[in-house]
From TrEMBL:
<keyword id="KW-0645">Protease</keyword>
<dbReference type="Pfam" id="PF02861">
    <property type="entry name" value="Clp_N"/>
</dbReference>
<protein>
    <submittedName>
        <fullName>Clp protease N-terminal domain-containing protein</fullName>
    </submittedName>
</protein>
<feature type="domain" description="Clp R">
    <location>
        <begin position="2"/>
        <end position="185"/>
    </location>
</feature>
<dbReference type="InterPro" id="IPR004176">
    <property type="entry name" value="Clp_R_N"/>
</dbReference>
<dbReference type="GO" id="GO:0006508">
    <property type="term" value="P:proteolysis"/>
</dbReference>
<dbReference type="InterPro" id="IPR036628">
    <property type="entry name" value="Clp_N_dom_sf"/>
</dbReference>
<keyword id="KW-0677">Repeat</keyword>
<dbReference type="GO" id="GO:0008233">
    <property type="term" value="F:peptidase activity"/>
</dbReference>
<keyword id="KW-0378">Hydrolase</keyword>
Amino acid sequence: MFERFTKDARAVVKGAVAQAAAVGAASVTPEHLLLGLLEREGSRASFALAALGGGEWKDAVREELEEVRRRGGLTRAEAEALAGLGIDVDEVVARVEGVHGVGALSGSRRGRRSGHVPFEKGAKDVLERTLRIALAQRERRIGDEHILLALTSRPGVPAEVLAGHAVTYESVSRVLYGGGEAKAG
């Protein structure tokens, strides 16, 4: 499948691996793929994000993803559901970090050396969905815009965080394929 990826899509995947390695993550997650996308410039996905106001909120997205990582990957909706059961996720995180250190719930593998960071199931699902989206658009190549569309089309942290900034599958599709003010070339 990777032979069909454009240079930009490959750079996003490599960036995701680098993001995971930088924080000592045990595996590459969909969140790392989103961080890899946010680092790109001059690509179709970066065009779509910029058209949707990305210059104004990219740093906020990075901060939100860091907060999710500290919560052990729980989405805002999951934290709210637990709050409805009387469980204060922020308090749990604070107590765990008080005993085990900041970032204890982040899935870090600090101290283990392996040169390879595998892709977890969610990240693999995003990449498979990326292929399906490209095929549905009758595209021969898989671009970083297809990764962005895949991240916005599946439930989870990236879609939730992006939707908080009005970046949805529908809004990205409108910018990329028409029906909006701008159209990617």
